[in-house]
Amino acid sequence: MAIVRMLQLSLKRCFLYLLCLTVAIFFVLNARQRDHWHSPRTNALHAETSSRTLPDGPKASNTSGVGNAMDVPESVWDPANRPWYMKDGHRKPHPAVRTRRTGKRLARLWPDEDPTEDRVTNQLMYVPPGYNRTSAEQNLKKIMVSNGMGDAKVGREVFLSLGCPVDTCTITRSKPEEADLILFKDHVTHPGSRPHDQIWMLYFLECPYHTQTIKYPQVNWTATYRRDSDIVAPYERWHYYDPKVTQIPQKINYAANKTRKVAWFVSNCYARNQRLQYARELGKYISVDIYGACGTFRCPRSKSLACFDMLDTDYKFYLAFENSNCKDYITEKFFVNGLGRNVLPIVMGARPEDYERSSPYRSYLHVDEFESPKELADYLHLLDKDDDLYNTYFRWKGTGEFINTYFFCRVCAMLHDDYPRKFYNDVNVWWRGEGTCTQSSWRKHNTPSNNAIEED
Questions:
Q1: Which pLDDT score is estimated for 13?
Q2: Residue 440 pLDDT grade (very low, low, confident, very high; cuts 50, 70, 90)
Q3: What integer best gives the mean pLDDT of the chain?
Q4: Phi and psi (nearest 5°) for 22?
Q5: pLDDT at 122 over 90
Q6: Is the pTM higher than 0.85?
Q7: What is the pLDDT of residues 352-367, one digit of tens each?
Q8: What is the mean pLDDT of residues 87-112?
Q9: What's the order of all strands across the beta sheet hosting 169-172?
Q10: What is the rounded distance in angstroms from the CA atom of residue 343 to the CA atom of residue 352?
């Protein structure tokens, strides 16, 4: 009897050990999957370190997320260890993993699977489970470009030349009835008969104020700058080399020899968000040089490069104001004219949380962080007098890069996913519904969620 009891105990222990080992392996695989597919989360870090106390401004001594490049493993700075979509990166994705219990893939690719992220890097690193390029080439996914997108050549060239991990797609401009997906840029024109399993994707880059209302509402996918799009198409996409290192010490003084305060290049004087009125009010408390039709300073478009060079040499601040206040609407005015220069951008357009998710940490000022233009001016005067504090807004430089988001690579990969077919019950409600845009400050605006998507 004693021997039997000992055997029973041994079997129970073996079972428990095996169970623990299985759970441990599952979590390891899950962690590795997130490393391969999931873009770095920096929101928690931002929330921890982005508090500002006015009028004294941010604490220059706050070093959360501030790393010394010498303290980071050398592998972080080695381009060969970076994913293929980064400059000189070589790391390619492996086929996606499915859970053994449910058979569901771990990669999170669609808005409802990861609503807090844009999933761009997840899609870039996605290869379907069991994907076989040879067999897939025998039945290429056909993407029809119905209008616009004139630079998209017919055939497979775009997918092969870009080195897409999933390249078994081809672009067509005829025979819509044979297409797996029809891409409509800016507007939808019904192509005629529509197979039941055909996907319609709406591609918008302008904000709702400057796009048409869709007459045929039952769109399956959306491709816009908005983070809740199925295929997010941002103007630029920032990616850290290491999400734990969001700032590093700089070797130069970005305030050196700069004698002028605020600059703005603008030609549209009648924007809906009243940005010109805000700039003029700001100009009552600090010097604001407005170049173009809306101001008194001139710098011709023919010399645009020299004009923007002034931001590097003469100005400390630049107004990167969009023409509309719409969620996630952040254009080259910020990414190129602002962050692309050695100047501190002051932004207006998307919501503060949108800039926080889309930008390098501590790289800008949002007008809605301040009660009024005067309060903003007071803080700018403080920065103007304190080079050390001013330079804290440039520690992001060198911690990452703006990546190529390879739009067509991601479209092709998503066409090979087995996600349940869905459609927007009315894409106009999703695109331009209540809370999407505001003609006043976001401080006075509550944004309700829009849930206009159904699954088929």
A1: 63
A2: confident
A3: 84
A4: -65, -45
A5: yes
A6: no
A7: 999 999 999 999 999 9
A8: 90
A9: 169-172, 141-147, 181-185, 199-203, 221-223
A10: 19
- Arithmetic mean of pLDDT, 155-171: 95
d(CA 135, CA 131): 9
Alpha carbon 278 to chain centroid distance? 27
Burial of 5 per CB tally in 10 Å (0-12, 13-18, 19+): exposed
Ranking 61-65, 90-94, 315-319, 402-406 by mean pLDDT, the lowest is 61-65
pLDDT at 214 (0 to 100): 86
Q: What is the pLDDT of residue 138?
A: 80
Contact residues for 252 (Cβ-Cβ < 8 A; gap 6+): none
C-alpha span between 389 and 384 (Å, rounded): 9
> Could you tell me the CA-to-CA distances from 3 to 6, 8, 11 in Å, in that order?
5, 9, 12
Query: Which tops the pLDDT comparison, 391 or 132?
Result: 391
Amino acid letter, 435 = G
Of the candidates 360, 255, 259, 263, the residue with the CA atom closest to the CA atom of residue 308: 263
| Annotated catalytic residue, options 113, 117, 137, 206 | 206
Distances from the Cα of 380 to the Cα of 49, 170, 182, 288, 318, angstroms: 20, 52, 49, 11, 11
Confidence of residue 100 (pLDDT cuts 50, 70, 90): confident
User: SS3 sequence, the chain?
Assistant: CHHHHHHHHHHHHHHHHHHHHHHHHHHHHHHHHHHHHCCCCCHHHHHHHCCCECCCECCCCCCCCECCHHHCCHHHHCHHHCECCCCCCCECCCCCCECCCCCCECCCCCCCCCCCCCCHHHHHCCCCCCCCHHHHHCCCEEEEEEECCCCCCCECHHHHHCCCCCCCEEEECCCHHHCCEEEEECCCCCCCCCCCCCEEEEECCCCHHHCCCCCCCCCCEEECCCCCCCCCCCCCCEEECCCCCCECCCCCCCCCCCCEEEEEECCCCCCCCCHHHHHHHHCCCCCEEEECCCCCECCCHHHHHHHHHHHHHCEEEEEEECCCEECCCCCHHHHCCCCCCCCEEEEECCCHHHHHHHCCCCCCEEHHHCCCHHHHHHHHHHHHHCHHHHHHHHCCCCCEEECCCCHHHHHHHHHCCCCCCEEECCHHHHHHCCCCEECCCHHHCCCCCCCCEEEC
Query: Has 369 been annotated as catalytic?
Result: no
